[in-house]
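User: I'll paste a sequence; please echo it back and then give the predicted structure.

Assistant: Echoing your sequence first, then the prediction.
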Amino acid sequence: MSKLISIGKILNFHGIKGEVKVGFSAGKEPLLKTLKKVFIFQNNVKIAYDIESVRFHKNFAIVKFKQINSINDVMAIKGLLIHIEEDTLKSGLDTDEFLISELSGLDVYNLQNEKIGIVSGVGENKATNLLEIEKTNGLKFMIPFVKEWVPVVDIENGKIVVNMMDGIESLYTTQDNQQ
């Protein structure tokens, strides 16, 4: 089985027949509609739950699991995270989509196809995700993770291409382990 990824949280019961109100990231409605099975960790034990139905109300998903039939059953899983297999999540992605976690460790090339380093991390600010790039000399800098700056992401071949706009490297250059 592949790695498990959290996709939502059980917030409360909905009605009296065992439906649960689930919080999830915006835009994931199509993925939730296709799911047949999820995993929930109860007391550090992974338990599979079969999905009977999914509908949406306001900004929440209303999910009915086959194994949950009352408010009391819901209370045992209230507040817990819902997980799916990473492979299931990946199969629902478009060809130009990928998981942020797949970026760390990728080789980084400039537009002239010269290797400049690796992706050492992914951060975020209010506007966008940021790629932290560690150059081959150990210096690090960050760039916005947008198409204008990162025109090519090739997960299959383990590389990305960045547009090193004039001066960007010197603006964001830091050195770890300076003494």
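The longest strand covers residues 45-57. Residues 29 and 73 are 25 Å apart (CA to CA).
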